Amino acid sequence: MSHKAGFVSIIGKPNAGKSTLMNALVGEKMSIVTSKAQTTRHRIIGIVNEPDYQIVFSDTPGVIKPAYTLQESMMNFVQGSIIDADIILLVTDINERYDEHDVIEKLRKTESPVAVLINKIDKSTEVEVKSKIVHWQETINPKVIFAISALHGHNIAAVMQFILNNLPEHPPYYEKDALTDKSERFFVSEIIREKVFKLYEKEIPYSTEVIVTAFKEEEHITRISAEIIVERDSQKNIIIGKAGSMIKKVGTYAREDIEGFLQKKVFLELFVKVIPDWRKKDNYLKRFGYEQ
Ligand SMILES: Nc1nc2c(ncn2[C@@H]2O[C@H](COP(=O)(O)OP(=O)(O)OP(=O)(O)O)[C@@H](O)[C@H]2O)c(=O)[nH]1
Hints:
Elements: E1 4-11, H1 18-26, E2 44-50, E3 53-58, H2 70-79, E4 87-93, H3 101-109, E5 114-119, H4 126-139, E6 144-147, H5 156-166, H6 181-199, H7 203-206, E7 209-217, E8 221-230, H8 233-240, H9 245-262, E9 265-274, H10 282-287
Parallel strand pairs: 1-3, 1-4, 4-5, 5-6, 8-9
Antiparallel strand pairs: 2-3, 7-8
Bound molecules: guanosine-5'-triphosphate.
């Protein structure tokens, strides 16, 4: 049986109705919904698994697929302007007068299929809907425009059909049972990575990888150990900081987010390890999931 899988970016201004749309689209079929799993690479807001497809919803425009090579990942991260998803849904509020120009610029450049969803049509007239459709045709000329009401479920089935029609043939990106220990580990390592990106300067984050080495669930607490891997001793010293001050920050911030994500108390232990030039070594790249 063929399998489809892909990344769907839901973008749009605050309050446009993105969460309401997500709920309308997938509702209880969602395996993971967490606003806590925010990472530098992608903020996954939900994964829908069916026997023959997997849809990964993200609300970060610069989504990067986990299987990309490190170099490509870094390029995309640095440029940050490419909307790299298999399908893009731009959610707009029909009553919004100022549309985001930077997003529109990016959408013009992307090669992925774009659907513009004009939302909240229950609060507008047919004339307004028609003029908005013309407006969007003129600004980005997307593959398709849907006039919807996420709140009232109007035209949602058509949006879902659009997603399924445009989802590429691909094996699943994540475990089909997306709440397995494995995917929790993945998110935990991404949360720690995010803190490294936030707390350290330029070259450090790119020389860093995080591996969760132990993940033990006890009744009231989850005990997690993770290694932060760098390429040189000098980087190790920077990661640790004066008298451990920096690594302590990473640990504290990461633990707070992981607790939010797992909804459990967490004991987090971090180790810093040097693997000289790990980025040039194929076997490490494979282990870290950068293999293509
Ligand atoms: N009338 C009407 N209201 C809607 C519709 N869709 C969403 N809303 C309302 O718009 C408000 C914002 O919706 P959200 O789904 O939270 O918007 P969001 O884009 O996720 O917002 P952020 O999380 O701030 O980015 C809520 O009060 C929704 O109930 C719709 O189709 N019609």
